[in-house]
Amino acid sequence: MILSPKARFGLAERLRGPEGAPLGEVFTFLSGLYFRGKLAYARAFARPPEGAAGVLVITANAGLVPADALVTHTHLRRFARVAIDAAEPRYRQPLARASRSLAALAVEDCQIVLLGSIASGKYVDILGRVFGERLVFPADFVGRGDMSRGGLMLRRVREGRELDYTPVLTAVRRGPRPPKLPRLS
Fold it and tell me: 56, 91, 139, 159: which one has the fewest Cβ atoms less than 10 Å from its Cβ?
C-alpha cells in the first residue's frame, strides 16, 4: 500500500518525493504498535555514546541506520530484496560493520540495548559477536509476542520508567508467556 503510486496519504507521498520520510516513521507505519513502542521507548531512554546517533534501526541491507534518516521508495525496495537472516551476507556484513563502528564509540561500560527479538539468531548472532556482554535486552520481553512488547514499552514511556535489562548472551531466550498486560482505562 505505501509503495503504490496511487497512495495519496502524506507518508506515501513523501516517500515518493526526492527527500523521502524518516525511517522510524516508515517502519512504524509498516509494523504498527510494536515498532511504535520501540521507537517511543528508545527515544525516551536512549543515552548514546558521544558521536553516535541516538536511536538506531536495524535494516535489511544498510546495517544500523538512525531512526531520523530519510528514506525513499528506492530504499524500501532495496530493503525488501534482502532477507533478515544471519546467514545472508547482504544483511550480516552491513550490520556487523555498523556495529563495530558503534562499538568503537562506546565506552567500556556502555550498554547496547536491543529492543528486537532474541528468540532467533537473526540479531543476536551478529550483534553478540561485536558487543558481547554489553548487548542487553529487556528481561520482560521473554515469552511476549511483538504486540505485547510494543504495549509494554509504550506503558513504560508513559510512566517514565525504564525496563530492567539483562545480557542477551547469558539470558533465557525463550520462556513461558507472561500474563496479559492489564487493560488501560
Answer: 159
Say if 63 falls within a structural domain. Answer: yes
Q: Are 37 and 163 in contact (CB under 8 A)?
A: no
The predicted model scores a pTM of 0.89
Q: 158: which 3 cell numbers?
A: 508513559
User: Which residues lie below 8 Å from residue 95, measured CB to CB, with a gap of 6+?
Assistant: 58, 63, 64, 126, 127
Q: Which domain holds residue 62?
A: 10-167
pLDDT recorded at residue 175: 66
Distance from the Cα of residue 85 to its chain's centroid:
15
Cα 20 from chain centroid (whole Å): 20
Q: List pLDDT tens digits, range 97-124.
A: 999 999 999 888 899 999 988 888 899 9
User: Do the domain assignments include residue 51?
Assistant: yes
- Taking phi over 0 as left and psi of -120 to 50 as alpha, with beta for the rest, 26 belongs to alpha
Bridge partners of 70, per DSSP, are 22
Is there a domain that residue 28 lies in? yes
pLDDT in tens, 124-164: 999 999 999 999 999 999 888 888 999 999 999 999 999 99
pLDDT surpasses 80 at 81: yes
- Contact predicate 69/23, CB 8 Å: yes
